[in-house]
Amino acid sequence: MNQKRPRFAVVDIARGVAIIAMVIYHFCWDLSYFRFIAADVGYDPAWAMFARTILWSFMFLVGVGLVLGHGSGIRWRAFWRRWIFVVAGALAITVATWFAFPDSFVYFGVLHAIALFSLAGLFFVGAPLWVTVTLAVALIALPLFFSDALFDQRLWSWIGFWQNPPPTNDLVPVFPTFAAVLSGIVVARLVLRSRWSARLASIQPTGRLPRGLAFLGRWSLLIYLLHQPLLLGLIYPAAAVLQPQVAMRDTDFLRSCQSTCEAGGTSAALCTTYCQCGLEGVEENDLWNAITTGMVTAEEQALLDAQNRQCSAVIYPELAPPA
Hints:
Elements: H1 9-33, H2 45-70, H3 76-100, H4 110-121, H5 129-145, H6 154-157, H7 174-193, H8 196-202, H9 208-218, H10 220-242, H11 244-263, H12 268-284, H13 288-293, H14 298-315
Helix pairs in contact: 1-2, 1-9, 1-10, 2-4, 2-7, 3-4, 4-7, 5-7, 11-12, 12-14
């Protein structure tokens, strides 16, 4: 009978840190989506790097977990029990996002990838290390040199190699993400062969924080499944009552106006004055629908033109019509 290795508390702690980071990211994504905060969490480079770091951390730990759980022999019953739970969670996310975000539903997100990568990773818990390392390098390198519009389609996008990925709230492609799982497998196998194995296994959390992180790590999969419905259950009704998008539209208008104005060669200080004047005109003439939708009537266009002339005269008095 295959024996399970002793549980490494440090791995649970690492999972706990990763799941906290993911909850923070999704909380901020929700706030951004409902316009409670100005940051565009889905596209801002810093936030994108934060999300990618969390994802690769999770996938690395998937590889570590495969070695710890099945490195001495695959425990098929335990594996299938967990795998079916992951697949069920992935399907639930697909169905839920289909109804909530039909244009960008999740069809191959984190849990979908974990289900596929866990199956594929079983081969590498006992394969020669050089094979695993070579494939990991290839997974990372190939997308840097090859892409094709074929992979822009949803049907093939989960593989990777896209030029413009289809719209979705979460997409975890095989190339290059499976490399993180393989990296975890390689590191775990090397550590278990080294003198560090006994030392790491002997580490036990004693303080409240390490013990709390270890607890979260042991239940990270359940937390992953539940945290977004809980967050949305709080944020969605709050957005319906507070309507943060109304308050945020002023900020969006001023930021867009400032950027466009400065790009035209006007100084930042004059652009600030001009844009504030423009905002006041939009509010006074109730032009928000025209601004946000781009559908402008002839009357609204006349108001916008008059407003532009008025605000231009504020920063350039020589443009003001003679009294």
